[in-house]
Amino acid sequence: MIIADIHSHILPGVDDGSSSLAQSLDMLEEAYNNGTRHMVATPHFGGRSFAVNKDTVLELTGELNEELARRDINLTVYPGNEIRCTPDTLNSIKDNIVCSANQNRYLLVELPFDQPDCDIESLVLNCAEMGHSLVLAHPERYQYLMKDFKTLEKLLRRGVLLQCNADSIYGLAGRKVKHYAHKLMRKNMVSFVASDCHSVIQRGPQLSAAYNTIAKLYGSDTANTLLYDNPMRMIAGKKITK
Ligand SMILES: [Fe+2]
After folding, report:
1. How many angstroms separate the alpha carbon of residue 77 from the centre of ligand 1?
2. What is the average per-residue pLDDT within 150-157?
3. How many angstroms does the Cα of residue 165 sit away from the middle of ligand 1?
4. Looking at the domain assignment, is residue 242 inside a domain?
5. Is residue 240 in a domain?
6. pLDDT tens digits along 166-208
7. Ligand 1 centroid to 153 CA: how many Å?
C-alpha cells in the first residue's frame, strides 16, 4: 500500500500543528512507516489568527525535503495551505499570498465550525472563475452542513470535492462525526481521505489503519482511489472524476 496524504499540519512552528523540526521529522517518519510517500503541507491560512503565507510555506517545505533527503527517507512534502473561508479569502487568493496544493489548481478550504461567516456558494463560483477547484476539508465535522444536505449536494454539483479525515472514518472524532463520514462514503461523495495530522498523537499522520478500514468496508479499489490515486492527481493538478 502506497499512500499520499493531502492534508497535514506538518510544517514546524507556524500553526497549531507541529511545534518543532524534531516533531515534524517524528511525524514524517511515522507517516513513512505507515505507507505514506507523498504529503501536502497545509498550514492554516485564516481563522484562529493563523495566516501562514505562500513564501513561508515554500521555504519550510523546501527545508523539510532537504532534511528528508539527508536522512534518506523516501517521502516528498509538497506546498499547500488549508484556507479558512472568510470574506477576505478571495482577496488573499487574488493577491497570490495563499498556496494551492503544489501550487496548481486545487485549493484546500475549511469552513467555520459554528455559524458560517461567509457565503460558500459564491466563494466557490468566484474561485472557479479564477481557475481554482476547491477541496472541502472534513465536511463531516460541520454539523450545520451535514444537517443541510441540499447545500452540500449543490456544492458538489458546482465541482467542490470532499476530503474526510481518517480519524472520522474509524470513530476517534466521535459517533456523530463517524456516522456523517460513512453517510458521505456510502453516497459516494468523498474524493479523498487524509490525516489532517497535528502531531504524532493528535490526529496522527498514520493512514494505514484508515486504508485498511476503507478497503474492508468499501473495497480496496475505493481505498486506493481515496488515499492514493485522487491525492496524486490533486498534487499533479490533474482532473479528478471520482
Ligand atoms: Fe487541518
Report:
1. 16
2. 90
3. 9
4. no
5. no
6. 999 988 889 999 999 999 999 999 999 999 999 998 789 999 9
7. 22
Q: What spacing in Å lies between the alpha carbon of 42 and ligand 1's midpoint?
A: 7
In terms of Cα–Cα distance, which of 154, 227, 216 is closest to 190?
Answer: 227
Whole-prediction pTM value?
A: 0.95
CA of 38 to the centre of ligand 1 (A): 17
Say how far apart CA 157 and CA 41 lie, in whole Å: 27
Average pLDDT over residues 132-147: 92
**Is 30 among the domain residues?**
yes
CA distances from 177 to 161, 168, 171, 184, 234 (A): 18, 6, 7, 11, 25
Helical ranges in 17-119 per DSSP H: 21-33, 54-70, 89-94
The CATH number for 121's domain is 3.20.20.140
Closest CA to 122 of 162, 164, 151: 151
Task: Give the pLDDT mean for 12-22.
Answer: 96
Count: domains in the chain: 1
In-domain check, residue 118: yes
The CA 136 to ligand 1 mean position distance, Å, reads: 11
How far, in Å, is the centroid of ligand 1 from the Cα of 124?
A: 19
Give the structural domain span for 14.
3-235
Q: Ligand 1 centre from 198 Cα, in Å?
A: 8
